[in-house]
């Protein structure tokens, strides 16, 4: 008996499953099908097009936007990557308005944004080598379980761990939890460094606050001496009446930059919560001397704050005289920051 074959009818009268290409064509037809022969596509959306050009201008000249008015320039630079969402919003508006003018104008900010940040998203710069793994974490002074946070950070396998925002009452808890992995440690004020390797010349670094929130130590690694700085710069605030208030942060950044400029060792690692991104020109005293491991060898933006929905990378690992191999964020702990880690190569002379 001949076996009868059955075919499933589709809505468009064909047989078999609908191809994804057909679905895309139908969607494109719905969005753009009525555009042909419509002279209004060039007249509509002029405001959207103007906003697109303004957005491109902001991204191109962000370093020249003055800080005199509420530190506006630094505020924009802190959240500069998020201007990509504004491009997407204008794209949707341009499609809804059926404006060819707006869509063409949007090419400019899209190109500028990709030039600024495309390398972070479209390429994996991380390597597998390296001699030293370092990590830093703002543990939050109100951390409900310091011991668990210490365990989480030590599980990263880092050779050195810097902790910031350490309340005096919690220091013994962190020291006890980390002792088995890190036999050497030092604490200055509210920052500390835990290391698998011996430390010497430990001292506080004056960042013009009146209390200790930065330190320096010489770490004797198997590959030579490394100067390690740990810093927690003052917080910034966004206020309606004052804008982006960061005067004390900026003053402390300048002081930290001076200390690093006076460093006598060739190999330098800076770990800490700088309360600012690499794009913020107010941190130039520091960022002009050191390389960001995330920028040099990380994938993606590496946002670290706030932990619940990271929007900016204000926790930094920066180096001089060593080569970044990889950089990444660690899993969330009980803090409002994510820990960050990096692997570096120490094959350069100390």
UniProtKB/TrEMBL annotation:
Q: Which residues form a coiled coil?
A: none
Q: Which residues cross the membrane?
A: 41-62, 74-96, 102-122
**Which UniProt keywords are listed?**
Membrane, Transmembrane, Transmembrane helix
InterPro entries this protein is in? Endo/exonu/phosph_ase_sf, Endo/exonuclease/phosphatase
Quick one: signal sequence residues?
A: none
* Annotated stretches, region: Disordered: 1-20
Q: Which GO terms describe its molecular function?
A: catalytic activity
> In which residue ranges is the amino acid composition biased (Polar residues)?
1-12
Q: Is this entry keyworded Iron?
A: no
The segment(s) forming the Endonuclease/exonuclease/phosphatase domain are 135-337
What protein name is recorded for this chain? Endonuclease/exonuclease/phosphatase domain-containing protein
């Amino acid at each position: 008996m001949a076996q009868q074959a059955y075919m499933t009818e589709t809505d468009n009268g064909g047989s078999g499953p609908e191809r994804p290409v057909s679905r895309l064509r139908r969607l494109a037809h719905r969005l753009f099908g009525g555009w042909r022969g419509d002279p209004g596509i060039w007249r509509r959306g002029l405001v959207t097009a103007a906003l697109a050009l303004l957005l491109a201008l902001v991204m191109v000249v962000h370093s020249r936007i003055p800080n005199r008015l509420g530190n506006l320039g630094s505020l924009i630079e802190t959240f500069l990557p998020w201007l990509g969402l504004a491009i997407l919003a204008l794209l949707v508006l341009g499609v809804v308005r059926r404006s060819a003018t707006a869509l063409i104008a949007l090419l400019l900010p899209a190109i500028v944004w990709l030039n600024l940040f495309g390398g972070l998203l479209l390429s994996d710069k991380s390597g597998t080598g390296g001699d030293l793994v370092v990590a830093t974490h703002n543990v939050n002074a109100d951390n409900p379980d310091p011991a668990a946070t210490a365990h989480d950070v030590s599980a990263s396998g880092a050779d050195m761990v810097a902790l910031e925002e350490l309340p005096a009452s919690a220091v013994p808890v962190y020291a006890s939890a980390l002792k088995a992995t890190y036999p050497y440690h030092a604490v200055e004020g509210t920052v500390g460094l835990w290391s698998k390797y011996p430390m010497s010349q430990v001292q506080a670094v004056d960042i013009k606050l009146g209390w200790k929130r930065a330190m320096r130590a010489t770490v004797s690694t198997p590959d030579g001496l490394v100067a390690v700085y740990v810093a927690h710069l003052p917080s910034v605030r966004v206020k309606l009446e004052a804008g982006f208030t960061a005067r004390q942060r900026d003053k402390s950044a300048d002081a930290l930059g001076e200390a690093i400029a006076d460093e006598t060792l060739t190999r330098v690692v800076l770990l800490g919560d700088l309360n600012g991104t690499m794009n913020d020109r107010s941190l130039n005293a520091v960022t002009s001397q050191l390389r960001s491991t995330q920028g040099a060898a990380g994938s993606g933006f590496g946002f670290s704050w706030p932990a619940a929905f990271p929007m900016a990378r204000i926790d930094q690992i920066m180096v001089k005289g060593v080569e970044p191999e990889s950089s990444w964020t660690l899993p969330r702990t009980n803090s409002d920051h994510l820990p960050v880690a990096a692997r570096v190569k120490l094959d350069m002379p100390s």
